[in-house]
Design goal:
- The protein has about 350 residues and is mainly α.
- It folds into two domains: about 150 residues, no CATH class; about 170 residues, no CATH class.
- Helices cover about 75% and strands about 0% of the residues.
- Helix 2 packs antiparallel against helix 4, helix 6 runs antiparallel to helix 7 and helix 10 runs antiparallel to helix 11.
């Protein structure tokens, strides 16, 4: 047992929840951002400006989602070069064979293939052959065996959540908004979760509401301590910056979470806000305004398909209210109340 443990340490194979549930999932979201998401934005710009070459660039970027996710995860797991490069083929296979639930298939299979590749890396004199052979063999073999089932399971779960949201928009609006919003602030990836579950439609709108509530909420709540730097870093960056302060005083998390519980059902019941752009956008919130941009790209896709005639003023009002205005106003009401009763103290929200 001691020799095996020593071998794992030497190979940098760390079997922990943080390594697989935080590091790998967060890296996966970055890979999605650098391929599918940015490609969608570029394609949308090209469609709106009539520049076909931009659409083509965007389509190329979107087509590389699988390899980008796999390489990002392998990088986060500390892969040697040959393992990292081999993951491009694994990511392409697992994403394609996983279908609509491809991102989850990539996530699971990449972890296994990466660790097997790391285990054999530099163990032989023909490492240039052995490491890619094992990594690709394990990765694509598992993709052919597991990916369709993993993808179908993820897709089914996402469909159940979206179906439940249409049937019970108030309750599910609260649950999806709060859970995905909290995932965004935690050191895991809400974007990767939404992508893995293909969370779009009304449920995607609720997820967007929750993420915006957390980011804008913390930015406004901590304005006294962090001023405009905090508005930018949290409102356009990530509310995850407050995680250290949450550990010290968990009660500072109540206000943004309450805001998400209010704006979530408003998004589903009142404004009928749907995210029909890339599923990853559902879990991005106001980070680089990716969430609202995702809603807009969904509108444009619906117009192109004939499912929507045009974007109405009511659509724009709902999007702006849910994404920015309501989180600001609600936080300005609840924040002072929590400070007054002593649940939020001076300095509790200060960022280093």
């Amino acid at each position: 047992m001691g020799k095996f443990k020593s071998f794992l340490e030497r190979k940098n194979i760390v079997i922990t929840g943080k390594r697989y549930g935080v590091d790998a999932l967060g890296a996966m979201a970055q890979g999605l951002f650098a391929s599918l998401l940015i490609g969608t934005i570029i394609s949308t710009i090209g469609q709106q400006t009539g520049l076909a070459w931009l659409v083509e660039i965007g389509d190329f970027a979107k087509s590389m989602a699988g390899p980008a996710m796999a390489a990002s995860i392998a990088f986060a797991l500390g892969s040697p070069a040959l393992v990292l490069f081999s993951m491009l083929a694994v990511g392409a296979a697992s994403n394609k064979l996983g279908g609509a639930g491809g991102p989850l298939a990539v996530y699971v299979i990449t972890i296994f293939a990466t660790e097997f590749g790391k285990a054999v890396s530099k163990e032989t004199k023909i490492d240039i052959l052995v490491t890619p052979l094992v990594t690709i063999g394990v990765g694509i073999g598992l993709s052919m065996w597991w990916a369709p089932a993993i993808g179908a399971a993820a897709s089914s779960l996402g469909e159940v959540i979206m179906w439940a949201t249409t049937k019970q928009p108030f309750l599910m609006g609260i649950l999806v908004s709060v859970i995905v919003g909290m995932a965004l602030t935690l050191p895991i990836s809400s974007a990767a979760i939404c992508a893995a579950l293909s969370l779009t439609g009304l449920a995607g709108g609720a997820a967007l509401a929750g993420c915006c509530a957390q980011m804008v909420g913390f930015a406004v709540l901590s304005f006294r301590e962090n001023r405009w730097n905090g508005i930018i870093s949290q409102g356009l960056g990530t509310s995850m910056l407050q995680m250290g302060n949450i550990v010290k005083n968990p009660r500072i998390w109540i206000v943004p979470t309450l805001v998400s519980a209010i704006t979530g059902p408003m998004a589903t019941c009142l404004f009928r806000l749907e995210m029909n752009g890339p599923a990853i956008s559902s879990g991005m919130g106001t980070c680089g305004l990716v969430g609202p941009i995702g809603v807009y790209t969904g509108w444009q896709a619906e117009i192109a398909e004939g499912a929507r005639m045009a974007v109405s003023s009511a659509d724009w009002i709902g999007l702006v209210l849910i994404s920015i205005v309501l989180p600001v106003l609600l936080t300005m009401v609840l924040g002072p109340l929590f400070r007054r009763i002593g649940w939020i103290r001076e300095g509790d929200l200060t960022l280093d």
